[in-house]
Description:
Elements: E1 3-7, H1 12-23, E2 27-31, H2 39-49, E3 55-56, H3 63-72, E4 78-81, H4 88-93, H5 95-115, E5 120-126, H6 150-168, E6 173-179, E7 181-183, H7 201-210, E8 216-219, E9 231-232, E10 234-236, H8 237-252, E11 260-265, E12 271-272, H9 273-284, E13 290-293, H10 308-314, H11 322-338
Parallel strand pairs: 1-2, 1-4, 2-3, 4-5, 5-6, 6-11, 7-10, 8-13
Antiparallel strand pairs: 9-12
The protein binds UDP-4-deoxy-4-formamido-beta-L-arabinopyranose.
Amino acid sequence: MAKILVTGGCGYIGSHTIVDLVENGHEVISADNLSRGFAVMNQRVADLLGLEIVNYQVDLSDRIQARQLFEDHNDIDGIIHFAAYKSVPESVEQPLMYYRNNIDSLVNVLELAQEFGVKNVVFSSSCSVYGNADELPVTESAPMKEAESPYAHTKQIGEGICARFTKAFPDFKIVLLRYFNPVGAHASAKIGEMNKRPENLVPIVTQTAIGLRDSMTVFGTDYDTKDGSCVRDYIHVSDIAHAHTLAMQQSLKNALPGNCEVYNLGTGEGVTVLELIAAFEKVSGLKLNYTIGGRRAGDVIKVYANNSKAEKELGWKPVYDIETMMQTAWAWEKALAETPAGMDS
Ligand code: WQD
């Protein structure tokens, strides 16, 4: 059993990863300043596990605050670093806030890992580092192209920092995990994505279906794809979570080829926006109210993963299909609606 610090532990993927880590026998502490995470998520994880997970409400971009956590816990074996801002449009409006927060928190975490001898780190990255990839499916060796947003740029910079840090200090290991499109919610419907004003497709679909929105817009059906709408590699958040547990376990066992390996976390299947909506309508039995609109600036037309490296080296295999992703997303939206104070309880 290892003791793992999960930064961003009150967020969407962080909370699901805490559940997976504990279910796989690890001890977990969380650090989340709740600027984007929700305290209630920590409580819901505790209810789900029947175990309290201590969350330290610290701003990791503040070196003093972050250091106190490591002084209080000098027996951490590994760190899974999720804590970052991740809204693409917000990063376009507030680039410096993104560079300050996302880069400073990573550098602080690595400096403290070094000072306190925590030699196993998993870094939360994103398929957005690829930009508009030339070849599909995308492999980890695909070149990083011009980032579509400051958010994506902070992930490219973050990966570069991890690569150069581990080159300078070979006894430190960092696993870089590039998520494609995380969607869905835990099968229990006790935890899921909490975002009152989501920008991503799936929560917009479920909020439209439950009546929180009158309708939604499909951003373009005139692309060169099978039905004209954009193609993405949607991956269930619980599959993403389990990949983190496996990556940390392989790192702790020194079982990975190098000390800064990168892995794509996607299903390997491309799904169009209209196909996703059809899957949602099938599992919900509802007709979704949507209109066809113009293209959204910055959208990549098609992207989906070659995930064979993660399957081979992490022993990871995604298990949720698109209909189950939609079913769990819908169950979560309905659970939120039944909760008296919604996302605050
Ligand atoms: C998916 C598709 C939209 C909303 C983002 C981030 C990326 C990563 C994953 C963190 C696109 C279409 C959407 C709507 C629509 N996040 N859409 N109507 O943009 O692929 O990726 O999440 O790492 O960094 O950029 O996800 O869910 O916003 O869009 O038609 O109301 O759904 O045009 O084709 P995206 P998304």
